[in-house]
Amino acid sequence: MLKLLRNSFSTAGVLETEDGKQIRWQYIEELNKLQEKEGLRLSNKLKMAHINWRQQKMKVHLAAQLFSSSVADALEYCEQELNYPQFRGCAATVQFLRTVDAAFDVLNSRNPFGKGLKAPIKPSTKGRARAILEKAESCLRGLKVKNKSNNLVYMHATQKKTPICGFIACGRSVINIYEDLVERPSAPCRYLLTYKLSQDHLELFFPAVRARGGFNNNPNARQFRGAYKRLLVRHQVKKGTGNCLLRDNTDILDSTPANANVACRVDVAPVEVLLTKDEIPTDFPDVDSLSEYKEAVISYITGFIVKKMKQKVTSMPCSLALTSDSAHPFLELKNRGGIQKPSAGIIAICQATEKCFQRLLKTNGGKAPQGRGTIMQIVS
């Protein structure tokens, strides 16, 4: 449903809400152009692959990353704080993205201990989940699109009604399933994880069966039985490069699991200096200042850096010196309660580092430097 909604939105270009406001695909394209120009993304995963989706139209994660609150936050910040003219009037688009994202989160809860919109549906969260799904239904039912006669008609009354009807049916079905499995007397469940109702598990299982046949991806009954036996006896279905990604630890056809605990370690040993200071070129182009856009992105990145540093710093005064009570407006917009507010000194260090990268990029013709001496070029 999410892919079909993305396809219809991109093809139409402009959708109109019940109250006459316009939802434009152009804002998504402008945000991608801005991020490509600046070289940093405004805390979202939007890339050229999301714009040119026709080359990878079956990949669900491209549609899910587009209909996200992070893209909505970036659009809102560009309009309200940066005052970029190309984003003027994007409020309806922002609201549309957030509505679809919230409904998608409710329909994909997979952790019994999840928080917020990703929490399972249970008596304490049922009201919020129902309100989100009803809001999404109202929003989707009110979408209008221009037909061949250039007249506005409701999208659910056209040939592109599939994603609208699909989302509405999913929302209503989830509520009915919850009432049957959780709320009724002697119900078998205490909560409902909606991701367990997803078809992702089948989409992960079918490629595993096809892979058993080598070059033959259309097995007959006898070949399918042999592949099924091999999967049943000794195999754990893992994610591949298909249309969907594995989102939880659901085991399919597993009788002898062998979960290995792999310790991931990061080598933080000092890097040997491969060039002397005299061998480093000094004719770097000067970068005097950073744009407001980059300052916003760097402040967000600095918050992540501070979070990692506080895990290593044991001294309380040093730990307190990393943070501040005030924060950049973009951090305030993105803050859901877990973002660290970096101090001005840490932000200044990260901004100086970004300027060093910009100098290196200009020196290397817009390409990131590679090979020996890169670290010394940055720190010198």
From TrEMBL:
Domain Transposable element P transposase-like RNase H C-terminal span(s) in chain numbering: 195-229
A matching Pfam family: TNP-like_GBD
Family annotation (InterPro entries): TNP-like_GBD, TNP-like_RNaseH_C
Location of the Transposable element P transposase-like GTP-binding insertion domain: 1-120
Name of the protein this chain belongs to: Uncharacterized protein
